[in-house]
Amino acid sequence: MKRITLLCCFTFIMLTLFSACSSKDVSEIKLAEVTRSVFYTPQYVAIENGYFEEEGLEVDLQTTWGGDKTMTALLSDNADIALVGSETSIYVYAQDASDIVINFAQLTQTDGTFLVSKSDKPNFTWEDTKDSIFLGQRKGGMPQMVGEFVLKKHNIDPHDDLELIQNIDFANIPGAFVSGDAEYVQLFEPTASMFEKEGKGHVIASFGEESDFLPYTVFMTKESYLVENEDIVKSFTKAIYKAQQWVQETDSEEIAKVVQPYFEDTELDILASSIERYKQQDSFAETPLLSEESWNHLQTIMEEAGELPKQAPYDELVNTDIANEVTED
Q1: How far apart are CA 325 and CA 156, in angstroms?
Q2: Residue 22: what pLDDT?
Q3: Same domain (yes/no): 218, 319
Q4: Sheet of 202-206, strands arranged across
Q5: Backbone dihedral region of 168: left (phi > 0), alpha (psi from -120 to 50 degrees) or beta?
Q6: In the prediction, which pLDDT does 13 show?
């Protein structure tokens, strides 16, 4: 009886110590994503495949629905890390913030929108958009800035050569296109593929292919958080890099099965075709490293759209040390 009692006590002590060590080793991260999107597939892969868990991280993912709200969550400490467009960090920098926002890991490296028309246009040229009604994205956001950049690239003035609509909320754009008079619209996946399948529109061009590489969606955090939690940010970046490599090496149908819990209302075939479309145009960054060339290209696009408040130096707003260390391990 005495031996049984001692054994029970020993077991209890070991379980208590193991539990204490486990909880001590796990770091919790509040992660805010600007929207829920197939475009962010590698992030969901990192969660579902257990890559964050392997790095000793417990990620609490929240969708904050908008760049302004996402940045507010980050600056007010309601989020530790944010997944949002790099332009938001520039807006904060331009306000002479005492605690600037640092971009440390790139997730997507192209624009994620596609040009969708109501009628099929097998011989489409960008000239066809002249004198049309064009339903664009929200003014000041990267999709709209890229949209204007691409139109100008093809010698089309987005404010004089067509009727550009910019006052529709992001969530209402698909419905406004179906019920309205616009011939063209900028849509993300999987909406673009769903419209094709349902006969509501035709994908005729890619803004991602037309605008080249840029840091479209990036993981960022406050400088103070990075200084105080560099090891956590490094572990986070390792998990993202694992997911990026897995996405590059894996069939789109298999990827779709992994991330489907995040898109329960989207059929698996649509999810797979959307992921494949992004893979084909290299939208998913292969590594977390954000290049200076793409950073400068981002600012060029913002400047041409009249939305660049001030030049933001690459070496001040981008941390490359962590991404370099992670990819070299």
Answers
A1: 43
A2: 44
A3: yes
A4: 163-165, 133-135, 184-188, 113-117, 202-206
A5: beta
A6: 47
**Are residues 221 and 207 both part of a single domain?**
no
Residue pLDDT, tens place only, 131-158: 999 999 988 889 999 999 999 999 999 9
- Regarding whether 156 and 304 lie in a shared domain, the answer is no
Q: Which two tokens stand for residue 30?
A: 């509040």
Tell me, what CATH number does 172's domain have? 3.40.190.10
Give yes or no for residue 18 having a pLDDT over 50: no
Mean pLDDT of 65-81: 96
pLDDT at 21: 44
The residue out of 211, 242, 259 marking a domain boundary is 211
- Number of structural domains found in the chain: 2
Tokens representing residue 77 in the block:
């400490």
Task: Report pLDDT digits (tens) over 186-236.
Answer: 999 999 999 999 999 999 999 999 999 999 999 999 999 999 999 999 999
What is the 3-class SS of the chain, one letter each residue? CHHHHHHHHHHHHHHHHHHHHHHHHCEEEEEEECCCCHHHHHHHHHHHCCHHHHCCEEEEEEECCCHHHHHHHHHCCCCCEEEECCHHHHHHHHCCCCCCEEEEEEEECCCCEEEEECCCCCCCCHHHHCCCEEECCCCCCHHHHHHHHHHHHCCCCCCCCCEEECCCCHHHHHHHHHHCCCCEEEEECCHHHHHHHHCCCEEEEEHHHHHCCCCCEEEEEEHHHHHHCHHHHHHHHHHHHHHHHHHHHCCHHHHHHHHHHHCCCCCHHHHHHHHHHHHHCCCECCCCCCCHHHHHHHHHHHHHCCCCCCCCCHHHHECCHHHHHHHHC
Range of the domain at 139: 113-211
Q: Which pLDDT band holds residue 23 (cuts at 50, 70, 90)? A: very low
191 occurs within a structural domain: yes
Same domain for 102 and 207: no
